[in-house]
Amino acid sequence: MSVELNLLPINEWDLDVTLQEPIVISGPCSAETEEQVMETCTRLAAQGGVHMLRAGIWKPRTRPNCFEGIGSVGLKWLKAAGKETGLPVTVEVANVKHVYEALRMGIDVLWIGARTTVNPFAVQEIADALKGVDIPVMVKNPVNPDLPLWMGALERLNQAGITRLGAIHRGFSAYGETKYRNKPEWEIPIELKRRLPKIPLICDPSHICGRRDILQAVSQKAMDLDFDGLMIESHITPSKALSDAKQQVTPERCGEMLRDLVHRSPESSNELFLETLEDLREKIDGIDLEVLEVLGKRMEVSEEIGRYKKSNNITILQAARWDKIINSRAKVGLTRGLTQEFVEDLYNAIHKESIRHQTKVMNEANAEKEAASKTANS
Ligand code: PEP
Ligand code: MN
Questions:
Q1: Dihedrals φ, ψ of 335, to 5°?
Q2: Ligand 2 centre from 116 Cα, in Å?
Q3: Rounded to an integer, what distance in angstroms lies between the CA atom of residue 86 and that of residue 82?
Q4: What's the gap in Å between 178 CA and the centre of ligand 1?
Q5: Ligand 1 site, residue 171, Cβ cutoff 6 A
Q6: What is the pTM of this model?
Q7: Ligand 1 contact, 207 CB (< 6 A)
């Protein structure tokens, strides 16, 4: 499915600031006090490389009795920090009241949080409230790995006339202990960018990592995947922050991280580079053909097995055999530099296709019978 959105490129967003990639949005997870907002923002601006200031005003917390945001008064603090630094400001809106208050205070850009993107009713209400309002809106991915839901939110806003739209990738909830607070599942934002090439794609490494020590690596990865920018949470005393204390960094550390990013270009005009790349890509294309050829052959054998099982009245699946395959292939994969996760995913896909082929041959006679009885009855 491909959708056409009417989008304005981010460098035409007209935000009174020169946006240079990576476009960096930074500021505290939550506005807490007037001084904290002002100091965080001025120290961030002093670092250079920050293009927009953020602060959460109304906080969607997982559990009650946590700090749920300072409320509307924080809008004034953030706006003042924007004025002091000459930078546009952005806040999260989750309902119509938030939208009205943010617009009333002249907030420059809005964003929709992950817990709101999951709810089409909420997104539609926000979109309706924004009809006729010319403001940029960034949409975080929903908490669950559902690309159509993320795209649906962007479509709702676009249909309400918002053309300055951006997407923020903040990772996806996972059950149990993982290295990340929210798993990145990079293939989802990559697919979003493939379907909507014009959408500015910002990575939020803070909410992906949930911790400071891997923030730099995730930011670099986003840059290497050609994201357009980063949203990084920053606090003057991160460990004392009223929300997301583990993942925030001081403005100085944020500046250092940005300076340490290696900038790689998605394109080159160097002829030698282009020729070498072309050669290597030809090799990849050839290997891919071989892979598909071999997979085709594998399925032919699967069908042969299917026919044989059928004539002996044996089920398609033998759980023990399947368990043996997936374990042994993962072991071989490791010796070829392939991760266990990759080999398991690959074999799950191969197995699914193999079952499809065996099911087809198992039911061949039934299908013939059905076709014959349809002709006889017609
Ligand atoms: C936030 O940016 O502080 C926030 C609440 O993020 P998310 O919607 O990604 O959880
Ligand atoms: Mn946060």
A1: -75, -15
A2: 14
A3: 6
A4: 19
A5: no
A6: 0.85
A7: yes
Q: Does residue 367 carry a pLDDT above 80?
A: no
Contact call for residues 139 and 116 (beta carbons, < 8 A)? no
* Cα gap 239→249, rounded to integer Å: 9
Residue 368 lies in a domain: yes
Is ligand 1 within 6 A of the CB of residue 249? no
- Whole domain around residue 194: which residue ranges? 10-260
Residues 190 and 321 in one domain: no
Assess whether the C-beta atom of 169 lies below 6 angstroms from ligand 1: no
* Ligand 2: centre distance to CA 109 (Å): 17
Work out the pLDDT band at 35, boundaries 50, 70, 90.
very high
Q: Give start and end residues of each alpha helix (H) in 146-270.
A: 147-159, 187-195, 205-209, 215-224, 251-260
Residue 245 CA: which ligand is closest?
2
* Angle between helical axes of 364-377 and 340-362 (0-180°, round to 10): 40
The alpha carbon of 4 and the centre of ligand 1 are apart by a number of angstroms equal to: 27
Domain count, the chain: 2
* 226 in the same domain as 168: yes
pLDDT digits (tens, 9 = 90+) for 328-358: 999 999 999 999 999 999 999 999 999 999 9
The string of DSSP codes covering 285-321 is HHHHHHHHHHHHHHHHHHHHHHHHHHHTT--S--HHH
